[in-house]
Design a protein that fits this description.
Layout lengths: L5 E3 L4 H13 L4 E4 L8 H7 L6 E4 L2 E2 L5 H14 L4 E2 L2 E2 L3 H7 L7 H21 L5 E2 L4 E2 L9
Parallel strand pairs: 1-2, 2-3, 3-5, 4-6
Antiparallel strand pairs: 7-8
Helix pairs in contact: 1-2, 3-5
Length: about 150
């Protein structure tokens, strides 16, 4: 069994569909984006709509400047667009970038990431089951999930 061959999709969203098709034709198994010169999600949206069947993932999406609800929505939408072939890779970045580039708080990155991942799982489960989320943690609070906001 050969290992999977994944490569970076490092073009703007406007060029991502054609680049994704080119790479898929070369036998690439998956494409990833990173939080660099382009938004981490938009090129993957274009790739997902390009009519190819390869894995797509973020490597990585910087978690702390984004709200858990937005990440849950983005992950869910990407999973739907990619036909179940999307993986949401999250990262913390470093303090200087979080505070000075993203203008967000840097605080206890390990426990904050653990809380965020648990909250994402709770949101996705609530969407699947029709349940609720009542989370009051150290870093995040989410206790409002009306039906109008469920996918």
């Amino acid at each position: 069994m050969r290992p999977a061959l994944d490569v970076g999709l490092t073009v703007p969203a406007a060029a991502a569909a054609s680049r994704a098709r080119e790479l898929a034709a070369c036998g690439v198994d998956g494409l990833f984006t990173f939080e660099g010169p382009h938004d981490v999600f938009f090129p993957l949206v274009a790739a997902a709509l390009a009519g190819i069947e390869i894995d797509l993932y973020t490597n990585v999406a910087i978690a702390f400047p984004r709200s858990p609800f937005h990440l849950a929505q983005q992950g869910r939408e990407m999973q739907d667009l990619a036909g179940g072939r999307f993986a949401l890779g999250l990262g913390t970045q470093v303090r200087a970038h979080i505070e000075r580039r993203y203008s967000a708080r840097w605080e206890s990155p390990v426990t904050r990431m653990a809380e965020l991942v648990g909250l994402l799982q709770a949101i996705w489960q609530a969407w699947e089951t029709g349940g609720t989320v009542d989370h009051r943690g150290r870093h995040y609070r989410l206790d409002l999930l009306p039906p109008v906001f469920r996918p």
